[in-house]
Amino acid sequence: MKGKDFQDFIEQDLVPRLNPGDVVVMDNLNIHKMEGIEEMITATGARVEYLPPYSPDFNPIEMLWSTVKSVVRMFPTRAMEALEQLIKLALMLMGTNTFKNWFTKCSYCTN
Q1: In the prediction, which pLDDT does 110 show?
Q2: Mean pLDDT, to the nearest integer, of 49-68?
């Protein structure tokens, strides 16, 4: 998405739906910090909160890819077929408890 497209989205689609007290959460993508974006949002009485620059704790997929990459690093290859097999191997090595633990760590589930 280009900056102008994002600006148009904020102005035409998001701002008309915002109410005082609403919170708009954005990451630190450059277009999210373009001049005028935050002002348009706060003019409605809503506020803007930015995510930390890198927040893997909020997203279990980050933990999954970290684990997959650690397995792939053990067997360096440039062949696509071998890489696909390594990714499949990494996923098979992860049991259901691994996934449950990730979701628990991210506070998506507690049991």
Answers
A1: 64
A2: 76
